[in-house]
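Homework help board

Subject: predicted structure for assignment chain

Our instructor gave us this sequence and asked us to write out the predicted structure in token form, then describe one feature. I got the tokens but I'm not sure how to describe them. Can anyone check?
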Amino acid sequence: MTDFDPARHRMIPAQRWFEDFVVGERFVLPSRTQTTAVFAAFQTASGDTHPVHYDVEYCRSRGMPHLLAHGFQTLIHTAPGAGLFPFMVEDSWSASSSNPAGSSNLSSPTTQSIPRSRSPSWCRDARPAR
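My token output:
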């Protein structure tokens, strides 16, 4: 039996850290097909039961060729997790969650401005030597 090495089984082998990114850099997201299952899941999660979101015949009787997607239903596909970005930064995310000097809650409602010229000390301190 061989030992499993998670570092050899990454979607993105080269990890990136705060200082590796450039202002204006783009991350292209894959296209998504809005299936009836996606419509049903979003209707359930949102609680929006208007027939324009789930009844094709209702839509056609009003001149629309198909269902009308919720605004947030399309917006959620633009989240950072919808592409490869989280796989590029997984080491820095795990380093930030063990940050002894600051919050480990990455979804905190408060924000802090970080100077572009340097990364936060917890990022520099947690990054492994190259």
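Reply (TA_rk): Your tokens look well-formed. For the description, you could write something like this. The longest helix spans residues 36-46. That's the kind of observation they're looking for.
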